Amino acid sequence: MRTENQKAWFFVLPVLALVAFNALVPMMTVVNYSVQETFGNNQFFWEGLGWFEQILRSDRFQAALGRQFLFTFLILLIEVPLGIIVALSMPRKGFWVPVCLVLMALPMLIPWNVVGSMWNIFTLPKIGLLGYFLNDVLGINYDMTQQPLSAWITVIVMDVWHWTSLVVLLCYAGLVSIPDAYYQAAKIDGASPWSVFRYIQLPKMKTVLTIAILLRFMDSFNIYTEPFVLTGGGPGNSTTLLSIDLVKIALGQFDLGPAAAMSLIYFAITLLVSWLFYTLMTKDDAE
Amino acid sequence: MKKRSIIPILYIAFLMLPIYWLVAMSFKTTNEILSGFSLFPQTFTLENYITIFTDPTWYWGYINSITYVTLNTVLSVCVALPAAYAFSRYRFLGDKQLFFWLLTNRMAPAAVFALPFFQLYSSIHLFDTYLAVALAHTLFNVPLAVWILEGFMRGIPKELDETAYVDGYSFPRFFVTIFLPNIKAGVGVAAFFCFMFSWVEMLLAKTLTAVEAKPIAAVMTRTASSAGYELGLLAAAGTLTIIPGAIVIWFVRNYIARGFAMGRV
């Protein structure tokens, strides 16, 4: 059991100082901007909650938010089951295990802008491998820079390519922690593969799966670099996700007030949904 | 049982295709790339790599990136170690709230912080230094390092600490000579994840640098400018960014999966 000791705070102090410096100061800057109006020259005027109201009511924000939720929903829908399936069918021991793990983890270690460039090169019609294959071999009319649907599919496939391995690695970690005795017992009972999955493997994967879903939610909801490099938010606004829109407003148009208000709304939504996920998925443990 | 292995094989093939294409492109001349489709490089060339290794503005991009990533990894793990120890061994006022607050920093979109970070680090005269990027990246790496290390430390029985104190060890000596060797797998995993997230993050790194500490990502945007769109050069630069990650992952291959599995949540 952990003992009560208030001096433990001294151990936490360096972390606290570092993270507070990085999190609180910028956060207060954002809060500061969000309630003021500026016309340059560092002159600011009190604006109150006007920006928040304007952002929440604007069609542009609502559309970007809608796209963001759709994107996150779709990638979770694909990556989580796919990750579980791949993890279940991986070998448990032997020479191929480290090889599989290293190859699978490779996409996660590629800088995000390179991921974007890489998929850009990969999908170029005429000269990219995928673009050539779809257009000239299969005869499907595919051009990511012109068709919103193609752009969406490409962005989703790219994210599946990039991050499914995280779900695989975590689920695999849960699976290898199951003692062989469990499987032997199931065999004696004549359990079907489905009931082995449902009553032995799934409960064992629950903790890691919670972490996987939480991390995938947070990271996909904050995604910026990869789709920005790949599509630039286009064609039109079709793949302009929340972060891309935010950077357009903040650094492109330099509308600091609306951008700051939007940042805070954005952060609040991420926090709220993460908290909901967390409480829902850990509810059974508490009971 | 053999039939099952078709799924991982297909999955890995899917992962390798875009990587293969990037590597193949890096050995082609710009002319060949633009003139049409070819599965293998027709005129194999190392010119793209030679350009990168002979032009200081190119290779300094890699040196800069590796420098701030290393700095960040060391910094994150060093401050996370005592904090993780405190979380794993003691209860104290506000410990749960503090732990959750640390984790919320991983939820903040980097895009939100880009501009305030720029202003913050400019005002303390750290703009365009390695330290600025390393410090900025601790925002999401320190919480992660604390989370992973705490999981590993909880697995070490408390009796180890007590025995050491009875034997007359002081806390710092106990921590360095007895405790650390026991959790070195955890330190490895935490360092790996810090390296990974700092290496792949580009938005903040680009925002906080201009010339001196410019990361490779910012250098890569050059391929799209003056001399037209040099895809071969871009592909070669991209291929080179995969290598440090691949090396690091090989060292921790037996621990990567365990790192997250041991965290709390």
What does this protein look like?
- The complex is a heterodimer of chains A (287) and B (265).
- By secondary structure, chain A is mostly helical.
- Chain A folds into two domains: 25-57 and 255-287, no CATH class; 70-243, MetI-like (MetI-like fold, Orthogonal Bundle), CATH 1.10.3720.
- Chain A is 74% helix and 3% strand.
- Chain A contains 13 helices and three strands.
- Chain A has helices at 8-34, 50-57, 59-89, 96-105, 112-123, 129-137, 148-176, 180-188, 193-221, 225-231, 242-252, 256-281, 283-286, and strands at residues 3-4, 36-38, 44-46.
- A two-stranded antiparallel ribbon of chain A has the order 2-3.
- In chain A, α2 crosses α12 and α7 (148-176) packs across α9.
- Chain B has 265 residues and is mainly α.
- Chain B folds into two domains: 1-45, no CATH class; 56-261, Orthogonal Bundle (MetI-like fold), CATH 1.10.3720.10.
- Chain B is 72% helix and 1% strand.
- Chain B has 14 helices and one strand; from the N terminus they run ααααβαααααααααα.
- The longest helix of chain B has 34 residues, at 56-89.
- The two termini of chain B are 34 Å apart.
- Classes of the chains: A mainly alpha (287), B mainly alpha (265).
- β1 (3-4) of chain A pairs parallel with β1 (90-91) of chain B, so a sheet runs across the interface.
